[in-house]
Specification:
This protein is an alpha+beta fold. The chain has four domains: about 5-50; about 70-160, 2-Layer Sandwich (VC0802-like); about 165-290, Alpha-Beta Plaits (2-Layer Sandwich); about 295-405, Alpha-Beta Plaits (2-Layer Sandwich). It is about 35% helix and about 25% strand. It contains 13 helices and 14 strands. It has helices at about 5-15, 20-25, 40-50, 70-85, 100-110, 120-135, 205-220, 260-270, 285-290, 310-320, 370-375, 385-390, 410-419; strands at about 90-95, 140, 145-150, 155-160, 165-175, 225-230, 235-250, 275-280, 295-305, 325-330, 340-355, 360-365, 385, 395-405. Strands 5, 6, 7, 8, 9, 10, 11, 12, 13 and 14 form a ten-stranded mixed beta sheet that branches. Strands 2-1-3-4 form a four-stranded mixed beta sheet. The protein is elongated, with a radius of gyration of 33 Å. The structure holds zinc ion (2 copies). One zinc ion binds near residues 193, 196 and 200.
C-alpha cells in the first residue's frame, strides 16, 4: 500500500516518542488509512516505515494505552459474564479509562494533531461491543439500550446500568383505606418509629406496593414506582373499569415477562384489595402521558344531612348543581401539600340514586380535578356553589367511590404505540 508522505512523516515522529502498540498507532490514522481495524492499520504503517529503513521498536509497554489492549479479552469475558446474569435484548458498552491513558492521548494529539484520529474510548467501547454482540447474539443500541455495561478499568470491574421497565394498565381499588402510593410515616418521615411499628409507613400497604411487590419478585428489580392518571382519596374506592397507571420497575434483571401470568400473580397477591387489568409493556414517555391525562370522572357518593331534608328541596338543589361551573379554592385538608389557588371545574350532572330524609346517594359526573367532598360540604365557603349552602343544611360525604375514571382509550393508545 502506498502511504501518503504526510502520514508517514507524522507516524515516524510518533514512534520516536517510545514504543507504541499497533492499535494506538493505527488509531491516529483511522480516517486516512483503509484497514479492517486499528491493529491492522498500525501494522501497515510500521511495515511501510521499516521498508524505508526507519527503526521500529518491536516490544515494550505502549506509552499511550499502557498495554490495555492486551487485556481486552479479559474485559470481554467479564462483560459477557455480567450480561449472562440478566435478561436484555439491546446493549451498549461504555468505559472509564485511567486518567494517565487519556492524558497521554491528549498529549499526542496536541503534538501531532487529532484530525485523522478516533479516541481510545471509542475504540475500546466498539471493540468490546462488537465481540459481545456476536458472542451473545444481542444488538448494540446507541439511543435506548436495555443495559449499558461500563468497563471501569481502575476499579477492575464492570458496572451495569439497567434501563427501567414500564408497564401500563388499569387498577381497581376494591376496599377503602389504601393510599395510591406508599406514604411515609408522618412522625418519623420514613426512618421508622414506635408509632409506625418501625415500618416507616403511615399505611401498611398501598396500590403501588400491592402491584409492585409481585412485580419486583418476578423482575428481580430494585424499586417500583407507580404513576397514576390522577388519584382517589385514601378512603375512596376506585371501581368501574379502573384507573390508568404506569408502573416503573427500576433495574429489572428479568424483562421478558408473561404479562398474563404477572397479572394473575398481582391479583392473587392483592387478595381482593385491588385488581389490575390490561398490563402492557410501554415506554418512558407514557409516564408523562399519564400525568397529563384529564378525563371526566363519575362518582357515587353517600351523603348525610345534619337535619331532615325534603325530597323536593334536595331535587331542586341537585338540579342547580347540574351544569354549574364550581369555583373551588384548594381544600383545607390538602393545603399542606397543594398550592393554595382557586380552580374552576364543571359539574355535568348530579343524579339522585336513593334518598331517606337524613341520607342520600348521589351520582356525580364532573370534570377531572374537582374535589367532590368539598362540593358537598362547601369547605367553609371555599367551594361555591355547594350542596350544603343550596340546602341551607350542612351536608357531608360518608362514602365516596370513583365509578368511572375515564381514559378507556388509553388501552388503544398503548396497543397502537406498541406496534
Ligand atoms: Zn497502545
Ligand atoms: Zn414512624
Amino acid at each position: 500500500m502506498n502511504l501518503d508522505e504526510e502520514v508517514l512523516a507524522r507516524a515516524e515522529r510518533i514512534i520516536r516518542e517510545g514504543y507504541i502498540c499497533d492499535r494506538c498507532l493505527g488509531r491516529q490514522f483511522s480516517t486516512v488509512i483503509e484497514a479492517k481495524n486499528n491493529k491492522q492499520r498500525g501494522k501497515i504503517i510500521k511495515d511501510a516505515l521499516r521498508e524505508r529503513g526507519v527503526e521500529v521498536r518491536e516490544d515494550g509497554t505502549c506509552w499511550i494505552c499502557l498495554d490495555f489492549f492486551e487485556e481486552l479479552d479479559k474485559w470481554i469475558k467479564k462483560v459477557g459474564e455480567e450480561f449472562r446474569e440478566i435478561e436484555f435484548s439491546t446493549f451498549l458498552v461504555g468505559s472509564r479509562l485511567p486518567p494517565e491513558i487519556l492524558e497521554s492521548e491528549e498529549l499526542l494529539w496536541e503534538k501531532y494533531g487529532a484530525e485523522w484520529s478516533e479516541s481510545i474510548k471509542l475504540e475500546v467501547n466498539r471493540e468490546i461491543g462488537r465481540e459481545i454482540a456476536s458472542l451473545l447474539k444481542k444488538k448494540v443500541d446507541f439511543s435506548r439500550p436495555d443495559v449499558v455495561a461500563i468497563v471501569d478499568v481502575e476499579k477492575g470491574e464492570v458496572e451495569l446500568q439497567i434501563r427501567s421497565l414500564y408497564l401500563g394498565g388499569r387498577y381497581r381499588k376494591l376496599i377503602r383505606g389504601i393510599p395510591q402510593t406508599h406514604w411515609p410515616c408522618g412522625k418519623c418521615k420514613g426512618r421508622g418509629c414506635e408509632e409506625c411499628e418501625w415500618s416507616g409507613k403511615q399505611y401498611k400497604e398501598s396500590v403501588e406496593e400491592l402491584i409492585g411487590e409481585p412485580l419486583l419478585k418476578l423482575t428481580e428489580g430494585k424499586k417500583a414506582i407507580l404513576h397514576g392518571a390522577g388519584r382517589e382519596d385514601i378512603d375512596a374506592r376506585m371501581l368501574g373499569s379502573g384507573r390508568p397507571f404506569v408502573i416503573e420497575i427500576k433495574e429489572p434483571r428479568r424483562r421478558f415477562l408473561d404479562l398474563k401470568k404477572l397479572e394473575e400473580e398481582i391479583n392473587k397477591f392483592a387478595e381482593g384489595k385491588i385488581e389490575v387489568e390490561g398490563l402492557t409493556q410501554v415506554s418512558l414517555d407514557f409516564v408523562q402521558l399519564i400525568k397529563e391525562m384529564r378525563h371526566d370522572k363519575t362518582y357515587r357518593v353517600r351523603v348525610s344531612f345534619e337535619s331532615e331534608v325534603s325530597h323536593e328541596k334536595l331535587r331542586e338543589a341537585l338540579e342547580k348543581l347540574s351544569g354549574v361551573v364550581v369555583k373551588q379554592r384548594t381544600p383545607k385538608r390538602v393545603t399542606h401539600r397543594r398550592a393554595d389557588k382557586i380552580r374552576e371545574r364543571k359539574v355535568y350532572k348530579v343524579s339522585l340514586l336513593s334518598f331517606d330524609t337524613r341520607e342520600a346517594t348521589l351520582e356525580i359526573k364532573c370534570e377531572s380535578g374537582l374535589y367532590v367532598k368539598e362540593l358537598i360540604s362547601g369547605d367553609d365557603g371555599r367551594t361555591v356553589p355547594n350542596l350544603s349552602s343550596l340546602l341551607s343544611i350542612p351536608a357531608k360525604v360518608l362514602e365516596l367511590d370513583v365509578i368511572d375514571a375515564g381514559g378507556l382509550k388509553w388501552q388503544n393508545i398503548m396497543e397502537c404505540r406498541k406496534r
